[in-house]
# Entry
Amino acid sequence: MACNKSGSRKPCATQVCTLEFQSVVVKFVDKQGQPVVVQNYRAVNLTTGRAVSGAGAIDAVKKPGYYTVINDSSIEQLSGLGNDIQVTAVNPATNQSLTANFEISGGKCACHINKISGPEQVVFFE
# Structure
């Protein structure tokens, strides 16, 4: 369990992980608090400069305005503590563009991603 196919030790300590699947989600709303289905949604890992795989709309019909910033499927795109993820989106009704920043921990030796900081929701004021 702690060895790879060649029999040498894995670079990570042996640990027991849960089967849960972690996601960091953000909700976009207008100034009245109504959900906004945004355009040009993008989540970029500022540490690597790469777009986060798996980021995007959750379900525009059942959960309008909710978007995945990052989830456990992208854990190996992170490098330990303090990964900065920047989310950008455009409100199609007003053409206002907003950004929000998240600090996320995770990486190849982590069981799950974890949000250190970042907003629960982003408000378009125009």
